[in-house]
Structures are given as structure tokens and as C-alpha cells.
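Why run this: before we spend reagent on co-expression, it is cheaper to look at a predicted model of the complex and decide which construct boundaries make sense. The entries below are exactly what would go into the expression plan.
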Amino acid sequence: GNSVTQMEGPVTLSEEAFLTINCTYTATGYPSLFWYVQYPGEGLQLLLKATKADDKGSNKGFEATYRKETTSFHLEKGSVQVSDSAVYFCALSDTGGADGLTFGKGTHLIIQP
Amino acid sequence: DAGITQSPRHKVTETGTPVTLRCHQTENHRYMYWYRQDPGHGLRLIHYSYGVKDTDKGEVSDGYSVSRSKTEDFLLTLESATSSQTSVYFCAISEGAGGLSYEQYFGPGTRLTVT
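The model came back. C-alpha cells follow.
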């Protein structure tokens, strides 16, 4: 079956540091890949997505590239802010149907001023 | 923001009582989902719907049932609540067909405590 593995953290960084959150996946087909962000007390918000190999998703300074050869979709940001503190989820959707997303366990990111 | 509301937002109930959570959307999206979020598990799919009266089970469906009598409403019922069903429940919607990207949009969540 499908699965997503990501570092759980917490990951603590100083403001303006470079961020990488690793995400690797296992899927039987050719999945679409997503990063969602959850701020305290809120639902999940779609941060970025990629639908095929070598696609790069980007939003709000965050980027992730769909690497089929390494089955990875690592999230990066060049200079983090305190407001980026949240929980980040990597997820995949397998082709052939809209039968739900498979999520990683989430990475808690803490940015210190 | 996608028009998704969940009710109630918080609920405390006793073991053995029935509980129904409601998800309402104003986007006219075909697909609707119920997930639960627990520490150390991320989000896990309970049930989903691909149209009115069309539903299917997800990864953790035991102890839950769903119904969808209208496009805009998707109900999750715990027939007899147990302490293991204490969780935060999220509803999500997806437009579905039209491409390979089944991105989903999430509601604000319902925090359920079973005592």
C-alpha cells in the first residue's frame, strides 16, 4: 500500500535559517504529492503540490520538487520566519481515483526569534 | 478559503452514547472525506463519499458510519462512542475529476472527547 515518511521533530530553527523537511513516499502508481500546513487550532491548508516527476511546487517562499528516482518531495525555504511555526504534513494521492490522501505523521516546526 | 463548516466544533460525550458530526460545504464539490487526527499518527481516513448516497470505507472505519443525502452535507456517526474515538475530526472536500491532482480542502475540525 501507499505510505509517506517524514521527520516528526520538533524541528527548531532560528529566524532567517534555511529549512529542509524531508519527505519520502511509497506508492504503487504515479501519485500527486502535496504539502499541507496546520497552524495551532486550525485545519490543514494546502501549501503546494506537484503532479508529475520533476515538477516543482512553490508558494509563500516554500518549494518542493517531485523526485521520482528517489521517491522524495522535500520541503525547503530559504529564510524562515517566526510566523512559519506550524505543523507540516506531506501527503500523496494515488492516480485512478479520489479515494483520500495518505499523510505522513507531520513535522512540528518551531522558529525562534 | 473553501466554504466548509463543521459542527459542533467541540463535544464531550460519555462512553456508549451515539454521536453525529456534520460537515457542510458550499462549493458543490463531488468528493467529501472524514479524517481523524491523533498524535503520532498524522491524519487517517475514516470514510469518504464520491457522490450522493455513494460512500466507501477508509483505513480506520471500524465503529463509524456515514451518510450523504445531499451534495453539501456529509455526516459521520459514532454509533456507540468509545474512549479510543477521542480525537480531532476533520472533514475535507475535493472537486475530483478533471485531472490527476486530487487536492483536498479541509474544514476547521471538531474536537471530540469521550469520557
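Chain B touches chain A at residues 30-31, 33, 35, 40-45, 48, 50, 56, 58, 90, 92, 94, 96-97, 99-109 (CB under 8 Å). The mean pLDDT of chain B is 92. Bring this page to Monday's planning discussion.
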